[in-house]
Amino acid sequence: MSKIRWNSVGRKSSKDDILPFNTGRRQTMPVKTSLSAPSSANAGRRKNSLRSSLRAINIIGSDDSPVYNMRQDCIAWQTMSQHLSLQLAERRRYELARHRNRMISSPEEHQNHVTVLMDKTDVLKVPSKTTRDKSTYLPSNTDDNALELDEDIIEDSSLMKVDTHIIPMEKLVERFNSDLTKGLTNDIVTEHRTTFGENKLTPSHKPSLLWMFIKQLLIGFNGILWIATLFAFLSYKPFGEPSPDPTNLGLGVILVLVIVSNALFNFYQEVKSMKIVASFSKMQPTTATVKRNGAEIQINAEELVPGDIIRVRLGEKVPADCRIVTCDDLQVNTSQLTGESAPVICTIKCTNRNFLESTNIIFYSSLVVQGTGEAIVVNTGDSTILGHVGKMTRNTSGSEITGLHREINRFVLFVIAAALLSIFLLWITWAAWLNIKQNGYISFNGNIVNSIGMVVCFIPEGLPAAVTLVLTIVAKRMYKQKVMVKSLATVETFNSVSIIATDKTGTLTINQMTITALLWGTQGEYMIPIHTNNEPNVTLNNEEHIIDRKRPSLNAENIPTAMKDLILGACLCNNVVKQPSLINGNGIDNPSLESNTNDTYLEKNEIVGDAADVALYHFCNDKCSVDIEQVKKTNPRINILPFNSKNKFMITANILEQTSTSLDNDATVLVTLKGAPDFILSRCSTYKQDSSDEILPITEEFRSSIQQRQETLGKCGYRVIGMIQQKMKKSQYNALIETYKTSKKQHQQKQTELISNEPDLNGLPGDNYCFIGMFSLLDPARPEVPDAVIKARRAHIRVAMVTGDHPTTAASIAKKVNILSKEISIDHGIDTFKIEHNNETGQIMAHFMRDTNTCLETHIVSEVMTSIQVKGIKTTSNMKIKSNIFKRIWACILFYLRDPNQVKDIDKLKLIPYGVVVIGGDMHSMDDYMWDWVLSHQEIVFARTSPEQKLRIVMEFLKRGEVVAVTGDGTNDAPALKQADLGVAMAAGTDVAKEAGDMILLDNNFSSIITAIETGRLLSDNLKKVAIYLLPGGSWSEVIPVFFNIWLGIPLPLSLFLAIIFCMFNDVVNSLAMVSEEAEQDIMSRPPAIRHRTHLIDWKLLVHAYLVVGNIECFAAFFCFFWYYSSQGIPLNSIFFTYANYSKNPPIAKTPEELLIIQQTGQSIYYVALCVMQMFNLLATRTRHISFFNHNPFFGKGRNWTILLGILFSTIVCVIVVRVPWFNSMFKTEPVSIKYICPALAFGVALFLFDEIRKYLVRRYPKSFLAKMAW
Questions:
Q1: Strand 309-312 relative to strand 999-1001: parallel, antiparallel, unpaired?
Q2: H or E segment at 345?
Q3: Angstrom distance (rounded) from CA 806 to CA 812
Q4: What is the pLDDT of residues 402-447, one digit of tens each?
Q5: 3-state DSSP call for residue 994?
Q6: What is the C-alpha to C-alpha distance for residues 629 and 634, in angstroms, rounded to an integer?
Q7: Which alpha helices (H) appear in 926-1006, and where do they start and end?
Q8: Class of the 460-482+1012-1269 domain?
Q9: How far apart are CA 808 and CA 715, in angstroms?
Q10: Cα–Cα distances in angstroms (integers) from residue 359 to residues 49, 327, 705, 1261, in the given order
Q11: Share of the chain above pLDDT 70, in %
Q12: Among the record's GO biological process terms, what is one (predicted)?
């Protein structure tokens, strides 16, 4: 039998091969057992997610073509799945043929075979003596079976990886020498690690350093400079013959040195930046809960080996390919592999002979979206399915085009266009006029040299190095701030962020729930002191009084029955577990960041579970001194429906006081349900009184009192959880479960799903409960959040809270963290709206309210809403391939220059200076007019939102031209994180959220978002400063001398050699010093940049660079140049419009050698004067709006000594070029007298003072024409 191999998919697949929409896929039916292969109706749900998953773990690069690679990812999975299915079908035919041959060859043995077929869920077992008492298991007609194979096939090592889902669990455990209860021992772990290696994917081969250097030599501006270098050598020979000028040869050599030095610098910075980004992966290690040596501990996921027994929970990422041992409503999202958006419902049975299609296997990188379970690791590292798919798609690479890339591309395009236009003018002028009317003035070879000069002048050689250096600086800052950015270039997007939509729990709060009070009946209440790090003793007394409190002690005889039931329910209806974990002995939270090889590690028990469950655990264990583990043993659990993001409640069934091992029908079953009071109260028919055991029927008065207590607590920022219970006999419970199983089995056999608005309670009752009481919980706000929100508001960035909490609770927390500020929402009022259905007209009316009592407007809700494009979902229209090749080429060019997804030409809504609170349940009734009204408020809170509603909020913001940054840490935040312009996940959040986010805050600090925004603005500012510095001297002041030489007939004021030296040494070093500038004082008081209007190079910057600074510098340099000529007895009328008659008509009493020395000295003077002017330009452009004296480079927050070092370096270069004799003779420079540079010093001071006055007027009159013209 041939060995199964994973074949890689070639890049030249045909179109039919790339469309895998007619192939089978994993079962995603909403039932626990897969009955048949799904139809092709779900084909449209495939998404391009695999490559983002592989990029996140550094396996492959980004996409070249989104549509092509979306299909390429799916075909990788489908190729493996179909190939394996064919192999399994071939093996199945082989087994059946062998079995028939046995029966034909030994008919007498055939009579001894016993065939047992009980029903469709049983296995067909055929014992055979000819196989030495081994058993052959053949599947029945359904896919619902635990399929088992012949052991001689199982033992074939080539089939081990694809049989782990079929063989009995006992044999699988035996194969890996594991134990379902105790897990692996240390010795076996060491043995398996030696055999199977570490559980990590082999990263793609690092790019060759030589190839990286070669690319730096050829890409960007260097490619253009190579062309100029070629023509420089050609101008020496053969164009320069018969008397070649050695200066042109030296010019070519200098250009080569310039290109190599530029490439070396960019190469060094790129390698350095790669190392910093690579270190981010060590900052966020992935952990796994595993059984080792009989204990459940947390380890690094890379330490997993086959045979490990792991536990998976909601929100976690599956750390390896695993077979499920036990599962409780377990569902995983495998869209990263299969493209299916619907979650896969997991089972413990094999549902398909194909390893890739069976639902008892969960794959590495899959995300747990519901339930819990235990599994045994079967494949790790490169042996996982993701490892195989990574190998198949590893050769595909590309680079993600970000906003920063597009800005650089626009700059490059502008430079190329300007250079080509100038060269075109040069040659038109030469061919149509100079070569005819002024023959001999400029030769063909001379015009080539002038063209080279145009290329060198227009190319800002310092820009590529500046961009590389600024990204390296950003990487270092992010590393120190513990902010993990998946792509450094995305930091620039923070410059445009106008909205931060933030989750509450774990983002604005510390995500440490604390029980503050127990409430029961109508008056009963027990308060618990709160102890936090910031407030050592905060109690409920700090808030307004809820009711007249009674404070019973915790003595057993004084505790009311309702309170005892609450404590018992908190112990039993609780899913927390104790997990030993290794921590650094030095107390470092993240050992991968700061620990060394000599560090010691200590074992610590960690309480893991839902935040509310952990709070209840600590209350029972710490405050009430209850042995929770003993309570659970005494009252064993027999059924559970765990909390999930859909149901938002938890229900358990326990046998009360069961001390014997037999579960007889006379035992009492306690069913406990906890959840939101408004949800569970509707399921109750009775409640317990305050101080007695009497149970009374629920009245409307009691419901109103519970709702009032919940509202009052919510206004103070407390979360409220209600608890109800029901007792029944074990026989009654058994009857309910049997009825539930029978009903479910009937629907499964019919392949139908029970459609009901009621949640599936696993057979437990849904009504007739007794209301026990409520818990109030407090999740304190992070202390740094209020200041961070204020800083964001000063930066004209709105912060909107999006939470699932009650509106009163959300509003209370929003007030504490300044999202609803005193100046706006509290003093002015908070807006809301009420939805009313008019039964007579059938219309839906929306009443816009202020402070719930003043009606501002009544709006008739329209059914017309504009469509929204969801990121990652392609519609038929936008997937249509254009037939016109020119349109495709033009669209491709525009893609690299302009973001195709940005919203353009939309006027921002005028902000309403009030706050607004919107309830998620009302969003389905909102039309575009209502969304405009809500989103135009200055302060916004969304409460009781679902994941779909949070996604809708983000899309509505995006539709109105806002640049949205979304924060979150939970599984339900992932869709919004993916849709937003910038998704910011928390390190303490789930793997789902971290997978979807663009950034991860490793310290969970909300203020780090504001720091990142400041960094993004600083990056944009510094790049603009580099451009405004390079363009006047490096382009304008070097281009004008060439045009003056051609059009006005004057001697060339600046030689090409000096122009190159100026661009590559004087300007480059100073521009690199500019990128290390610190943020200006007003950087966080400016409004966000408008993405489609604000560019690195815009008309304001060009006007300031060329028409203002460039002309001043040119005038100063020409003044020094002509002053020197005048001092040598050469008046201006002997210079201008002389062309080839220079020194002849009018005559100049100088020899040709003297005139040559005068010209070379004048060129050196122009060069030095230009360097002096650029030094003052450097000091002036350090700030955009703030005065130099408030942001000086010598001391204070604006200190930047690299500026001074740059000026010193530029001075040294000037001295070397004009004073060293070798340079004088080789490149025709001359020593410069200081008196001819003094005018440049005066003009430089004037330029500096002029810019200071301009900045003052911009600050003083922010709405003036001058302010609008400011760059």
A1: unpaired
A2: strand 344-345
A3: 10
A4: 667 777 778 878 888 888 888 899 899 888 888 888 887 888 888 8
A5: helix
A6: 9
A7: 928-935, 947-959, 974-979, 991-996
A8: mainly alpha
A9: 5
A10: 20, 11, 48, 68
A11: 74
A12: proton transmembrane transport
Q: How far apart are CA 824 and CA 832, in angstroms?
A: 15
Domain spanning 483-511+781-835+911-1004: which superfamily? HAD superfamily/HAD-like (3.40.50.1000)
Amino acid at residue number 633: K
Residue whose C-alpha is closest to residue 613's, from 657, 652, 661: 652
Helix H segments across 802-861? 807-816, 827-828
d(CA 46, CA 42) in angstroms, rounded, equals 8
CA 137 to the chain's CA centroid: 48
Spacing of C-alpha 398 from chain mean position: 18
Give me the count of residues in the chain. Answer: 1271
Q: Give CA separation, 757 vs 619, 647, 672, 677, 754, in Å.
A: 34, 11, 21, 19, 10
764 and 641 Cβ atoms separated by less than 8 Å:
yes
Structure tokens that stand for 1188 in this block: 């130099």
Find residue 350's DSSP bridge partners.
Answer: none
Beta strands in 745-853 (DSSP E): 769-778, 798-802, 830-837, 844-850
**Is this model's pTM higher than 0.85 or not?**
no
- Per-residue pLDDT band for 1070 (boundaries 50, 70, 90) equals confident
> Two tokens at 1197?
């927050």
- Joined together, the tokens standing for residue 97 give 């043929």
Instruction: For residues 1260 and 1237, give the distance between their C-alpha atoms in angstroms, rounded to a whole number.
Output: 35
- Is residue 926's pLDDT more than 70? yes
- Note whether 820 and 811 are within 8 A (CB): yes
What does DSSP say about strands 982-986 and 514-520: parallel, antiparallel, or unpaired? unpaired
- The answer to whether the CB of 414 falls within 8 A of the CB of 221 is no
287-292/124-127 β-pairing: unpaired
| Nearest-angstrom CA–CA distance, 484 and 1043 | 50
pLDDT for the residue numbered 1211: 93
Contacts of 1235 (CB under 8 A, 6+ apart): none
Give the C-alpha distances (Å, rounded to integers) separating 302 from 193, 319, 325.
Answer: 10, 8, 21
Q: Where are the domains of the chain?
A: 169-203+283-396, 460-482+1012-1269, 483-511+781-835+911-1004, 513-531+558-578+606-657+668-741+764-778
Number of H helices, E strands in the chain: 43, 31
**Regarding the domain with residue range 513-531+558-578+606-657+668-741+764-778, which homologous superfamily does it belong to in the CATH classification?**
Calcium-transporting ATPase, cytoplasmic domain N (3.40.1110.10)
Q: Which helix (H) or strand (E) holds 685?
A: strand 684-688
Per CATH, domain 169-203+283-396 is 3.10.690.10:
no
